[in-house]
Amino acid sequence: MSDAAKTPSGPLAGLRVLDLSRVLAGPWCTQILGDLGAEVIKIEQPGQGDDTRRWGPPFVEDGSRDAAYYLCANRNKKSVAINLADPRGAEMIRKIAIDCDIVVENFRVGGLVKYGLDHASLSQINPRLIYCSITGFGQDGPYKDRGGYDFLIQGMSGLMSVTGRPDDQPGGGPLKVGIPISDLVTGLYAATSILAALAHRDRTGEGQRIDMALLDTQVALLANQASNYLNGGMLPRRLGNEHPNTVPYQDFACADGDILVALGNDRQFRDFCKLIGRPDLPDDPRFAVNGGRSPHRQALQDEMQPAIARWKSDDLIAAMEAAKLPGGRVNDIPHILADPQIAARGLVRDMTRSDGTPVKILGYPGKLSKTPADYRHAPPRSGEDTREVLMTLLNIDGAELTALMEADVIAERLR
């Protein structure tokens, strides 16, 4: 059975999502809904498709030449190429929305009004619709009309002010996170909010609008750093690999490389000091409890580093594991993807595109005992489901499809 022929089996099976989003935050959200069983219809611009199809190299070496980036956020979807700027295309999308449960879009504020695809328009024809808008700064406020991009949001939100090494160290200065964290977490929050809206609809029968902003999401993720400032007046700063509150919680140099030490309480600190041959350190009143270790972190590091440097990294990690102390090493991506723990968890999965091209994806991380995620439809080529969806949902016949294609209102890619 091909990936595309599999029937949804997850907890959201029976729900239909109209995906008007592109790039990452929106597609990440809709991929989660698809993994959990929803039917996701991804609308793409004919001849162009999702921007990320061109965000390479690397590219998939098949007829599509889709970028590997695109593959990360678009499985379990059907691709329908409709020109929404054409009134006939917009009308088709409105008709599809009548039979959908969820719409996800990431156009600029007000950008879908002229097509009749905004929340006000679609909720009139489908009051049960859950309509999620994802923008950089939200539907209101002084920045609402600005475009939002992950890199900008990481900087504007304050995240980069606490990421990287201190200014007085080599390589110091603000850094972005190595993945588009603001986009990804906004997609996660959007999916969570949609599930909450579904629960509300189950009780009341009414849909609602969800307003998601990248800046809001990233500021909410400041978590302990923001709380340290709001409730304690502590000004967050860049600490490299150190923790702002818990010490020691950082990297240390062994004889043959660095390891990570993540000690979360005073007992673990005492056990670790004994392990490395410095059982006297907890007797120092500066270091006895975490509240003292944090303001005296440099003095503690100066005491611990020579003892740790005598160890080989594998030996110390093994000794920490035997003592049930949290530690490890920094893996590169090839190493972690080949790690036996990741293999045991089945996170790397093989799928097959409609033309037979094999691709690898990272699966949904949650393990649901009764309704697990499924993987039934590899990331589609642009427009490959146009004919099937329009014939099935809108009862458009072959002759009309041909006329619409000749008028560049829709497009399809032959399998």
UniProtKB/TrEMBL annotation:
Organism superkingdom: Bacteria
SUPFAM superfamilies: CoA-transferase family III (CaiB/BaiF) (SSF89796)
Keyword Iron-sulfur: no
Keyword terms of this UniProt record: Transferase
Protein's UniProt keywords contain Cell inner membrane: no
GO MF terms, alphabetically ordered: transferase activity
Protein name, as recorded: CoA transferase
